[in-house]
Amino acid sequence: MSERTLAIIKPDAVKKLAIGDILGRYEKAGLKPVAMKLLHMAKPVAEGFYAVHKARPFFDSLCTFMSSGPSVILVLQGDNAIKKNRDLMGATDPAKADKGTIRAAHGTNIEFNAVHGSDSPDTAQFEIGFFFPGMEIYDGR
Ligand code: ADP
Ligand code: MG
């Protein structure tokens, strides 16, 4: 079933010039970018996006990291897009991520881990709406 997921190429991966490699991985896996922008999040924007993690000890540090430079924010569309993207990403901690995953290739540690991906249909709906109005999502390809 075709679905959509929100992906972020985080500031660490943008700084490392890994945008091209990561976009290529999405496309080769059949995940089509249907919306995309380069955005330097203000810290309150990162706090709003990660509100679900507000109570976690790493929340402040995570939001500082996510507002430290520009990210690439994308909506990916394809069969099973949410799980497919999570599989491409690998485990949260790059040291535990399977070989061949994005985090194994580009992540530094459990915080600076190169990419984000929605983890469920509900999360995807919230996250896509957080960054993109419907008129900026290009369907029908
Ligand atoms: P995922 O991104 O794999 O879905 P989580 O939703 O659990 O992982 O966490 C959101 C983000 O918070 C992670 O991608 C990572 O950047 C950061 N993070 C998660 N756990 C930790 C931790 N123990 N210490 C520091 N940062 C963390
Ligand atoms: Mg998560």
Characterization of this structure:
This protein is 39% helix and 20% strand. It is globular and about 40 Å long. The longest helix is centred in the last third of the chain and has 11 residues, at 121-131. With 141 residues, it is an alpha+beta fold. It is built from 7 helices and 4 strands; from the N terminus they run βααβααβααβα. It has a 4-stranded antiparallel sheet, with helices on both faces. The chain has helices at 11-15, 19-28, 43-49, 59-66, 81-89, 102-106, 121-131; strands at 2-9, 32-39, 71-79, 115-117. The model has no long low-confidence stretch (mean pLDDT 97).
Describe the sheet with the most strands: 4 strands, antiparallel
Bound molecules: adenosine-5'-diphosphate, magnesium ion
- Number of separate strands: 4
Reading the helices and strands in chain order gives: EHHEHHEHHEH
- The separation of the N and C termini measures 15 Å
Mean pLDDT: 97
Decide which structural class fits the backbone. alpha+beta
Instruction: Provide the spatial order of strands within the biggest beta sheet.
Output: 2-3-1-4
Q: In one word, what is the shape? A: globular
Fraction of residues in helix: 25-40%
Strand content: 15-25%
Number of helices: 7
Low-confidence stretches: none
